[in-house]
Amino acid sequence: MNPRPIVKLSHFLNSGNKLFQRGISTARQSYGAEGGRNSGRIFADYAIFKGKAALSVAPVLPSFSKTDSGYTKVDRRGVIMLTFRPAIGERKYDSEKKQLFALSVTEVGSFISLGPGDSCEFFHDPLMQSRDAGQVRKSLSIKPHTDGYFISLTVANNILKTNERLTVPVSTAEFAVMRAAFSFALPHIMGWAHSTNQVLDDNNVGRDSLKVHPQASSSSSEWDR
Amino acid sequence: MNPRPIVKLSHFLNSGNKLFQRGISTARQSYGAEGGRNSGRIFADYAIFKGKAALSVAPVLPSFSKTDSGYTKVDRRGVIMLTFRPAIGERKYDSEKKQLFALSVTEVGSFISLGPGDSCEFFHDPLMQSRDAGQVRKSLSIKPHTDGYFISLTVANNILKTNERLTVPVSTAEFAVMRAAFSFALPHIMGWAHSTNQVLDDNNVGRDSLKVHPQASSSSSEWDR
Amino acid sequence: MNPRPIVKLSHFLNSGNKLFQRGISTARQSYGAEGGRNSGRIFADYAIFKGKAALSVAPVLPSFSKTDSGYTKVDRRGVIMLTFRPAIGERKYDSEKKQLFALSVTEVGSFISLGPGDSCEFFHDPLMQSRDAGQVRKSLSIKPHTDGYFISLTVANNILKTNERLTVPVSTAEFAVMRAAFSFALPHIMGWAHSTNQVLDDNNVGRDSLKVHPQASSSSSEWDR
Amino acid sequence: MNPRPIVKLSHFLNSGNKLFQRGISTARQSYGAEGGRNSGRIFADYAIFKGKAALSVAPVLPSFSKTDSGYTKVDRRGVIMLTFRPAIGERKYDSEKKQLFALSVTEVGSFISLGPGDSCEFFHDPLMQSRDAGQVRKSLSIKPHTDGYFISLTVANNILKTNERLTVPVSTAEFAVMRAAFSFALPHIMGWAHSTNQVLDDNNVGRDSLKVHPQASSSSSEWDR
Question: Which of C143, D93, D120, D141 is the most buried (most CB within 10 A)?
Answer without folding.
Answer: D93
